[in-house]
Design brief:
The two termini are 12 Å apart. Helix 2 packs antiparallel against helix 4 (51-69) and helix 3 (39-45) crosses helix 4. The protein is an all-alpha fold. It is elongated and about 50 Å long. 63% of the residues lie in helices and 0% in strands. It holds the Pfam family DnaJ.
Length: 126
């Protein structure tokens, strides 16, 4: 699912984009980094980088792009991995504040009320 694995880096940091970025920004960041991190090229270019390390970084990049390029997966990821600067410590546990924050994020990216409703209806809540 969209949840980050323990020890993995933030998907936004992996791609080098802001949390508020558009889908186009995600795709262009992915393309730039993909060319640098392809395991066969990275191992040849960087002395001291093992093939396993290069492959792990490349797979991390692919996973970040996959999650952040899909609006539903991105919404789940953002919900499960809230940015500490988006909420104060006092309201970080409040589900309504987190959902409102997600709605505002979608609206700021140009989604309509209907789009946001459809996204939230499609999420399999646990």
């Amino acid at each position: 699912m969209a949840e980050a694995k323990a020890g993995s880096r933030c998907h936004y940091k992996v791609l080098g984009v802001r949390r508020e970025c558009s889908g186009d920004e995600i795709r262009s960041a992915y393309e730039r980094k993909r060319m640098k991190l392809q395991p066969d090229k990275a191992v040849l270019r960087c002395a001291g980088v093992s093939e396993a390390e290069a492959t792990a970084k490349y797979l991390e990049l692919i996973q970040a792009c996959k999650v952040l390029s899909n609006p539903r997966e991105r919404a789940i990821y953002d919900y499960q991995n809230p940015d500490s600067s988006d909420t104060t410590e006092a309201d970080s546990d409040s589900l309504s504040n987190r959902l409102l924050s997600l709605c505002n994020m979608f609206h700021s990216r140009g989604y309509s009320e209907g789009d946001v409703d459809n996204i939230f209806r499609s999420i399999q809540w646990r």
